[in-house]
């Protein structure tokens, strides 16, 4: 009983903290960025990480198995994965601006909010594992898969942001070209503006704005590539460990089960992404487009297949392996 109470308390504490962190991020985005608020959000993410870690450990103790046997537990673990990705990225960059935090904090609150509020209370209960799941491979395989989902989702969302910014930049360039055409017709008016210094001021502002956009797109591309590379490594380890587990349980390394098939499709998509990164002619927009497609594929693999409840990986409603 005491473990259930502690789990309940830690669930609400972690959700409350991550909600405050998300609110702080919104304030820094909509209003002026404040150093004190940014520092508070970083401390909040650390507190969230320890709260969710405590929640998972307590659930592990009283259930007797690693808490990755159903949708509720996997969502909590996915939220934990987003928080640890945030902390690792913060350690790597130090006191510099962390663009990845704009993805990790909202993702963590979305996952945990859906787990605690979007699912039926009965689904929160830990059940005895079916024989097929009573294996040491459970922790290895499922943890690697969920860590890969978290990293790949973060990287894919950054690629989506890169596409949006680049697309808007292209529109600005097109509009600017039309504007210059109109100005060339109104030559006398341009001459007047040159004398007043208006054109030089406008050019200086546009150059600064374009430089800021360039720096932002470079940072987004940097973090997108590194998080996707990390996620792709985890995904490869997860698929290989799953194949070994499948051979122990079902006598075959690969059965073309729907879950396995979509995991292979996900791996193929991000293998293509890795190839586009090695080819200079296919970098940036092409790789970002592939990663954006991968974002949808991940959700089909993680959530969509389990909703259908078909295949060897379906041991019950919303059960994940």
Automatic annotation (TrEMBL):
Task: State if rRNA-binding is listed as a keyword.
Answer: no
* BP term (GO), one: cytochrome complex assembly
State any GO CC term: plasma membrane
Record field: transmembrane: 12-32, 44-62, 68-88, 140-167, 223-246, 261-276, 288-312
Supply the Pfam families for this chain: Cytochrom_C_asm
Q: Name one GO molecular function term.
A: heme binding
Q: Where in the cell is it found?
A: Membrane; Plastid, Chloroplast thylakoid membrane
Where's the Cytochrome c assembly protein domain?
68-313
The alphabetical list of record keywords is: Chloroplast, Cytochrome c-type biogenesis, Membrane, Plastid, Thylakoid, Transmembrane, Transmembrane helix
**Membrane topology per record:** Multi-pass membrane protein
What does the protein in this record do? Required during biogenesis of c-type cytochromes (cytochrome c6 and cytochrome f) at the step of heme attachment.
How is the subunit organization of this protein annotated in UniProt? May interact with Ccs1.
* Family designation: Belongs to the CcmF/CycK/Ccl1/NrfE/CcsA family.
Protein name (database record)? Cytochrome c biogenesis protein CcsA
């Amino acid at each position: 009983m005491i473990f259930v109470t502690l789990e309940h308390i830690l669930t609400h504490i972690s959700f409350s903290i991550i909600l405050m962190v998300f609110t702080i991020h919104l304030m820094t985005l909509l209003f002026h960025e404040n150093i004190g608020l940014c520092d508070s959000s970083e401390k909040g993410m650390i507190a969230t990480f320890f709260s969710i870690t405590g929640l998972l450990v307590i659930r592990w103790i009283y259930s007797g198995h690693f808490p990755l046997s159903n949708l509720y537990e996997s969502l909590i673990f996915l939220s934990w994965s987003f928080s640890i990705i945030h902390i690792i990225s913060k350690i790597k960059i130090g006191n510099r601006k962390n663009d990845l935090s704009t993805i990790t904090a909202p993702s963590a609150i979305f996952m945990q909010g859906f787990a605690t509020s979007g699912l039926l209370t009965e689904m929160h209960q830990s059940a005895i594992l079916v024989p097929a799941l009573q294996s040491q491979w459970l922790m290895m395989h499922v943890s690697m898969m969920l860590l890969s989902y978290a990293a790949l989702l973060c990287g894919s969302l950054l690629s989506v942001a890169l596409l949006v910014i680049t697309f808007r930049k292209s529109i600005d360039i097109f509009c600017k070209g039309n504007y210059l055409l109109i100005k060339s017709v109104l030559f006398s008016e341009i001459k007047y503006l040159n004398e007043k210094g208006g054109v030089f001021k406008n050019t200086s502002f546009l150059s600064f704005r374009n430089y800021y956009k360039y720096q932002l797109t470079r940072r987004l591309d940097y973090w997108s590539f590194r998080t996707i590379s990390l996620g792709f490594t985890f995904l490869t380890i997860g698929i290989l460990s799953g194949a070994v587990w499948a051979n122990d349980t079902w006598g075959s390394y690969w059965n073309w089960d729907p879950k396995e098939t979509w995991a292979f499709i996900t791996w193929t998509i991000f293998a293509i992404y890795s190839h586009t990164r090695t080819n200079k002619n296919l970098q940036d927009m092409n790789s970002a487009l592939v990663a954006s497609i991968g974002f949808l594929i991940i959700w089909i693999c993680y959530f969509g297949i389990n909703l259908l409840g078909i295949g060897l990986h379906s041991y019950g409603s919303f059960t994940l392996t």
